[in-house]
Predict the 3D structure of the following.
Amino acid sequence: MKKTLLAIAVAGSLVVMPLAQAFELKTDDQKVSYSLGLVLGEKLKLDLETMDLDAFQEGIKAVYQGTTPLMDSQQVGETMQAFQMRKMEEQRQEVAKLAQENLDKGQKFLAENAKKSGVTVTASGLQYEETQAGTGKQPTAADTVKVHYRGTLLDGTEFDSSFARNEPVSFPLNGVIPGWTEGLQLMKEGGKAKLTIPAELAYGPGGMRDAIGPNATLQFDIELLEVNPAQ
């Protein structure tokens, strides 16, 4: 009898349950509400990888149904402030980790690049490689220069290029990153060079928006077209 009852129990467990019917959007209010849920969800997911949907729904209900919230305004404020502080600390740690990784990669690259024939390392750590000798004027830090350039990260990613825009750029040499100020003074009009610039002579631990990470070592291919070009 026990064997028979066990067989019945196992057989019963194999019964396929019908799937829950998918939610249907039948009215305009439902469609608007669902759309708002998608829009809000996409924004919230940028800050929260996971969400307790039950708790979130209870908060929405408290507002729309007029029930007593489980937290008062002070508790909400303290909770959100603590959350923001936690997120800021997480971001700080991520940036610090990336900064150290970039610094280590840069130092390793610079050590290897310095061994290449034709590369000169200055006292500041700038690495200068002349690819075409110039014959014209040699600028000072007080001069304005007209150049074509291409800037890349160590992995070859191009973050800026006047060549791509087909439009050279003019700027005061004392108004750019230190690596440029120093490197351009080693060139003459008509010359071309590759600058490998350590992070401390570039954008340092702050980087530059999304284009250049913290402590990134940069490379520039530069063509010096003219010193103090006519306006």
